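HUMAN:
Could you generate one sequence with tokenized structure?
ASSISTANT:
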Amino acid sequence: MSEALVRRGYQIGVEIGRGRFGVVRRCRSEATGEEFAVKSVEKRVLADAVDRECAAREAKVHRLAASGNPHAAQIHDAYEDDDWVHLVVELLEGPDLYDRIAARGGAPFPEPEAAAVVQALAEAVAACHLRGVAHRDVKPDNVLFDALGQLKLVDFGSAECFLGADGGRAPMRGLVGTPWYVAPEVVMGREYGEKVDVWSAGVVMYMMLSGGAPPFYGDTAAETFELVARANLRFPSRVFRSVSPAAKDLLRRMLCRDVSRRFSAEQVLRHPWITSGGLSTVEGASRDPSLATERPEGPLLRLCA
């Protein structure tokens, strides 16, 4: 595996992560001395046509999503041969958001801290959507932070472009993502759009405010999918007693089963809980007409054609 990367001028280092199909290692450019992470996916272990298609387009979609997006990990190089796909990306050495949640030992994030993370995550997702890219696997494991503490969305292996060749929206299909975080329309086998990322970001927000418990959890993937499909959102008093009405209001709007009423990423950024840094009351939401209904957010960039 590493021979192809060595020929391209990289020194391969230690393993720093591993996923369902890929392994991530440190690497160093011999030309510049700069350090990166390289994600390598072995083609023979890809389970089905959907996985193979995702691996084939990951580099292209990642470049689109990360272009001008400060909250997405940047991609520096890509290489594919008969057996492997290699992506050289920005090296992010800090703990991911899942580790940060776990390190709190069940204690919830203070709302201002949670609001800062949700704001940055919504900015990352909104920038992806502006470029016509849906991430489709937003979860704490894929939220990292650079040396300055800036949030970075990573792993675009499940991402897809939702714009057609004519610039119009092309609906997506396929059960893609991680059970706790997928939206109801994905679980139910329907066509879906980019708001699946908002649902997933809502799950992330819920977990930060609940001390790590997801809103829909079953002992098996099938049980979890059933609970997601029902989308019966609850706020157990023992966990959410001290959580503000504004935070719960935003969660209801992100974790809304009705896609037409679910917030877009841009609407999340305009919600009072976000604009006040986690300190607002819910009354502000009812006074802002832009939050009550969907409104156009400007033309999508035609980058996926």
Observations:
- Strands lie at 10-18, 22-29, 35-42, 75-80, 84-90, 133-134, 143-145, 151-153, 160-161.
- The CA atoms of residues 174 and 189 lie 7 Å apart.
- The chain has a mean pLDDT of 87.
- The first strand starts at residue 10 and ends at 18.
